[in-house]
């Protein structure tokens, strides 16, 4: 029942695959009959223990350096090196410093002796004669702790392997995006050449028309030329700008080591959406170009400037128009004109964008809904209230909303960082305050109180 070695674990045993994970326990006593009795008692508990016996403190030290144990049950009174001295040496070694030690003794029932053992690193005592119920209870605790730790280690190893695979996929994606970018640059060059050629042709045509039609037809021709050039050029420039900005943020995410599965999935979705945008944007080219340009300039730089709050909120809603339509979300902006801030519009746009994303993913649950954004000037402060009519948040969960990596949709588009970023931007960059109020079935209300002039 008691061996001097630990059998190698089969594949998957650490993660709990193929049955309960065996728990190695080291028994230390200079008397074999005591070891046999203790091993027999532990074997009757059916706790999945793998018992290893040592008949001296020196042997216990050697075994602890070669194997990992969940618990040491050690006699105190042993010749040559007693249990106290053995515990001292175990605590001095970094490899065994955290190894739980339970002293088994018949002669240290007094508190002063027990305190001395605790000072040397003992976690508990078992007084002979040993009560089986007490022994089972204490050993069970350490078995559960050991299995839990090994299970967590397995999860870490599994996640590390997943991240490595994602990194390889990301490398391939980066190479593909670079090739796409090069292709786009070539298309832009060809477009410029065609525009130059067509401009020359139109210029010669215009000269002939001016001679024959006089100045009366010049305005219509110029308008037609401008319209003809603006449509393809506007579409191509919109896609090029969107892909360049998104690719830059994506590459920065990779460089910062913040890549997650949801970020990668969102990047792929964004690139596909950008490709489809060229076919759908003919009627809205000018509006989308202006809105995207304003949002892109603010969010890719940490510049401070004076801006109109309503215009900034409208810009971000225009940029998110496709996502809002796909999610069947209606937006209402009730911010009066003329409310201006001297602050960081990029941070405010990021806050609004994250709140909208949170509503789409968690609040509406694919069923659509309505988002209302109110605003008002309160002296030297600007108060913005963001509301949705989604499913709401349970009161006992509201204090966790701003915690990093807290999400109810892990692996379904939620990284757990959206509201954490909202909190940090509001308190850090914008130097304001944020409050959240919600009831189940009644949506969410988020109130931002921001200084109209951000502190220097």
TrEMBL record:
<dbReference type="InterPro" id="IPR004358">
    <property type="entry name" value="Sig_transdc_His_kin-like_C"/>
</dbReference>
<keyword id="KW-0808">Transferase</keyword>
<dbReference type="InterPro" id="IPR011006">
    <property type="entry name" value="CheY-like_superfamily"/>
</dbReference>
<dbReference type="Pfam" id="PF02518">
    <property type="entry name" value="HATPase_c"/>
</dbReference>
<dbReference type="InterPro" id="IPR001789">
    <property type="entry name" value="Sig_transdc_resp-reg_receiver"/>
</dbReference>
<dbReference type="InterPro" id="IPR003594">
    <property type="entry name" value="HATPase_dom"/>
</dbReference>
<dbReference type="InterPro" id="IPR005467">
    <property type="entry name" value="His_kinase_dom"/>
</dbReference>
<dbReference type="InterPro" id="IPR036097">
    <property type="entry name" value="HisK_dim/P_sf"/>
</dbReference>
<feature type="coiled-coil region">
    <location>
        <begin position="170"/>
        <end position="208"/>
    </location>
</feature>
<keyword id="KW-0175">Coiled coil</keyword>
<feature type="modified residue" description="4-aspartylphosphate">
    <location>
        <position position="75"/>
    </location>
</feature>
<dbReference type="InterPro" id="IPR036890">
    <property type="entry name" value="HATPase_C_sf"/>
</dbReference>
<keyword id="KW-0597">Phosphoprotein</keyword>
<dbReference type="GO" id="GO:0000155">
    <property type="term" value="F:phosphorelay sensor kinase activity"/>
</dbReference>
<dbReference type="InterPro" id="IPR003661">
    <property type="entry name" value="HisK_dim/P_dom"/>
</dbReference>
<keyword id="KW-0418">Kinase</keyword>
<feature type="domain" description="Response regulatory">
    <location>
        <begin position="24"/>
        <end position="143"/>
    </location>
</feature>
<feature type="domain" description="Histidine kinase">
    <location>
        <begin position="224"/>
        <end position="454"/>
    </location>
</feature>
<protein>
    <recommendedName>
        <fullName>histidine kinase</fullName>
        <ecNumber>2.7.13.3</ecNumber>
    </recommendedName>
</protein>
<dbReference type="Pfam" id="PF00072">
    <property type="entry name" value="Response_reg"/>
</dbReference>
């Amino acid at each position: 029942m008691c061996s001097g070695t630990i059998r190698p674990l089969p594949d998957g045993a650490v993660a709990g695959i193929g049955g309960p994970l065996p728990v190695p326990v080291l028994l230390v006593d200079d008397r074999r009959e005591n070891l046999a009795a203790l091993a027999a008692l532990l074997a009757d508990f059916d706790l999945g223990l793998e018992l290893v016996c040592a008949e001296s403190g020196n042997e216990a030290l050697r075994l602890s350096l070669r194997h990992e144990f969940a618990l040491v049950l050690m006699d105190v009174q042993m010749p040559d090196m007693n249990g106290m001295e053995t515990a001292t040496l175990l605590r001095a070694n970094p490899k065994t410093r955290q190894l739980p030690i339970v002293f088994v003794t018949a002669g240290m029932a007094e508190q002063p002796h027990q305190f001395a053992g605790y000072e040397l690193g003992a976690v508990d005592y078992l007084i002979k004669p040993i009560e089986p119920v007490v022994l089972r209870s204490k050993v069970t605790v350490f078995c559960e702790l050991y299995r839990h730790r090994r299970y967590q280690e397995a999860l870490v190893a599994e996640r590390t392997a997943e991240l490595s695979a994602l990194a390889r996929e990301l490398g391939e994606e980066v190479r593909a995006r670079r090739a796409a970018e090069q292709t786009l640059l070539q298309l832009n060059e060809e477009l410029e050449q065609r525009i130059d050629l067509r401009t020359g042709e139109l210029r010669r045509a215009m000269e002939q028309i001016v001679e024959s039609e006089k100045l009366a037809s010049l305005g219509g021709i110029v308008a037609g030329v401008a319209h003809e050039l603006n449509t393809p050029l506007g579409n191509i420039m919109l896609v090029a700008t969107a892909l360049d900005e998104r690719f830059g943020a994506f590459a920065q995410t990779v460089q910062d080591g913040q890549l997650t599965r949801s970020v990668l999935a969102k990047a792929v979705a964004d690139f596909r959406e950008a490709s489809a945008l060229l076919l759908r944007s003919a009627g809205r080219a000018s509006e989308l170009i202006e809105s995207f340009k304003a949002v892109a300039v603010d969010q890719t730089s940490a510049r401070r400037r004076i801006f109109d709050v309503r215009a900034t909120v409208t810009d971000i809603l225009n940029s998110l128009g496709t996502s809002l339509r796909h999610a069947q979300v209606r937006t209402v902006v009730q911010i009066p004109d003329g409310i201006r801030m001297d602050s960081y519009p990029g941070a405010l746009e990021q806050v609004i964008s994250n709140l909208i994303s949170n509503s789409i993913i968690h609040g509406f649950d694919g069923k659509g809904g309505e988002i209302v954004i109110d605003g008002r000037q309160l002296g030297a402060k600007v108060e913005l209230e963001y509301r949705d009519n989604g499913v709401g948040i349970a009161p006992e969960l509201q204090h966790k909303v701003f915690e990093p990596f807290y999400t109810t949709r892990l692996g379904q588009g939620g990284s757990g960082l959206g509201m954490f970023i909202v909190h940090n931007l509001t308190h850090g960059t914008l130097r304001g305050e944020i409050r959240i109020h919600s009831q189940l079935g009644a949506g969410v209300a988020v109130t931002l109180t921001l200084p109209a002039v951000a502190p220097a």
